[in-house]
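G., before I forget:
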Amino acid sequence: MTDSTNSDSRPGRHLDFGKVAKDLIVTALIATAIFGSTIAFRTVSAAGGLRLEVRYDLAFYVIAVVVIGRLLLWLFIWSKPPGTSAVEMPVSIKSGLAKVTAKVGKGFGPTMLMFALVFPFLPFTDRYLLDLSILILTYVMLGWGLNIVVGLAGLLDLGYVAFYAIGAYSYALLAQYFGFSFWMCLPLAGILAAFWGIILGFPVLRLRGDYLAIVTLAFGEIIRIVLLNWYQFTGGPDGLSGIPRPSFFGLPFSRGEGGFSDFFGFDYSSMHRIIFMYFLILALALLTNFVTNRLRRLPIGRAWEALREDEIACRSLGLNTTSVKLTAFAIGGMFAGFAGSFFATRQGFISPESFTFIESALILAIVVLGGMGSQVGVVIASIAMIGGFEVFREAEQFRMLIFGLAMVVIMIWRPRGLISTRIPSIFLKEKKAVSADMVAQGEGH
Amino acid sequence: MTHVVDDPVLTVEHLNMRFGGLLAVDDLSFDVGRRDITALIGPNGAGKTTVFNCITGFYKPTEGRITARHEGGKTFLLERMDDFKIPKIAKVARTFQNIRLFGGMTVLENLMVGQHNTLMVASNYTFGGIFGLSGYKKAEKEAVELAKYWMDQAGLTQRADDAAGDLPYGEQRKLEIARAMCTKPKLLCLDEPAAGLNPRESEELNKLLLFIRKERDTGVLLIEHDMNVVMGISDHIIVLDYGKKIADGTPEEIRNDPSVIAAYLGVADEEVEEVEHEIEEGASS
């Protein structure tokens, strides 16, 4: 609103009444614009149709609260001299906080992993929580896969869900037409998705910035529309159902003779299959993380990051940027393919409905929110976003509003994502994190 | 007037570069000696950077031939190669006028990216590396050693684990040269390496360049405006003006060349007066 952040505007404790009055009027006008229409009027169903209910009094109270709140801010916080400003955190607390977060950060990964391993056996874990964590882990895996393309190589991909769809349909179709099992299809789905990553890679090699983003977006839509319209092959909008469930090394999760519970002498429980699914996606996600971390320390991973930093410098050092980009798309796509086949086997039914642009946007939001290139950041962001969606399920139509507000707040608070520092892939004496201001963001951001 | 070079690492013959109606480089021919420091100088807009971009493949020349020669007698026609193959196969490395470092990566990482092609082969194109085969670990150790060597030479060892973007300007310049040297080039092309350096830093740069020539058998071709650097370390100077070569010789020859003096300082006062006189006469008649 007004320049309340400008330190010149608040000299000493003396309030400039004209300025405050002006600010409060502006505040009142904005509050009226926002709440005047949304709170003052309400449609209620009545006999014979809708009736308009008018609540001027309520709107007035809300606006008054906003104005009084801002007045209190002026009186008690913004009136202080700039040096002792209470809005900003003191330096000592800030550096202390940084130390604490660094310590927490070190133990965070292993702690999370331990928790993830014992989670299905905790007393409070029920079917709902387990299903939710499978969903979160799927997004963690997708986030880690997209992190290769967006976070490391710096190529903005808005059509990542296409690879997820290719993985899911690969498994479903191979199982339907050839009767392949899940374990056979998993690598095949990954290979097919990687292959399509290369196919996408070729046309976008020469593109930069916004143009790259648009073509990847179009690619995502093309895949979805082909799946939707190729009725004879993919079942179109009807989708594919009866996708076979995975077995535990040949033991199906079924009741009776020859099943998993029979073989190990357990009582049959439908939870066994869910717990198995949980560990399956956990293993797949950890594989993604392991491979990504490994690749970062190899020349290919450094080439990805160098590509994000400066493509021309890469070429001047003899890096074939074509193959660098193609490998990034292929490997990123491969992990989405794995995740897709897992999705198909978990759901047992897939249709193009599950692979809309909003999914791509959600995965990208997870990567951006977590901090591009940060593996732990993706985990936190997935939990926050997918878990947050569930927590606010009660809030119904306000869910998206809360979600959007949270995004805005986080982007103001941490514009480069929750974990924005970059950890070097190799060091001589001391591993120093590189601050986010130094790290380039690549194409299309 | 052409300076005779016995064993050229680079030969440029009849190079023409046309941008629409502008002939940026006009029938330029010169040689770069294998163990020489060759300077390409000229007033602003003379076409020096264009020549560089042609040599390093960033532009495809309109006409002409650019040949790189290795010690074994192997030759590479640079005008026909993809830009990334020129450092990779023909071993001609370059730096940029406006420094292009990987700012978010550390000094050591920058130097490791410089050795990408060697490491790629050593990691069996990633497949060996991902399974942790010993061949890659050894190659990586050697790469770190080479990086250390160049950090020592460039005085960057203390900053090895700092982000390249955090370095002061002079050190960034040196890092860019060190990174180019990590590709083990036969010819190093430097685009204004001393621009923006203070006298002490440019003295260090001179030392580094002389070291490169002496110890590493690498030819150096540089564009430079700083005459202290040019006259102090060059063996051979080529002067361009409006895309044409106007002089070619040793620093001593160049210093006394009337056409160079005219290009840099303009023509002598008497000549200007003569021209003015003619114009006045033309106007009055």
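Chain A has two domains: 7-84, 126-413. Confidence is low (pLDDT under 50) at residues 1-11 of chain A.

More on Monday.
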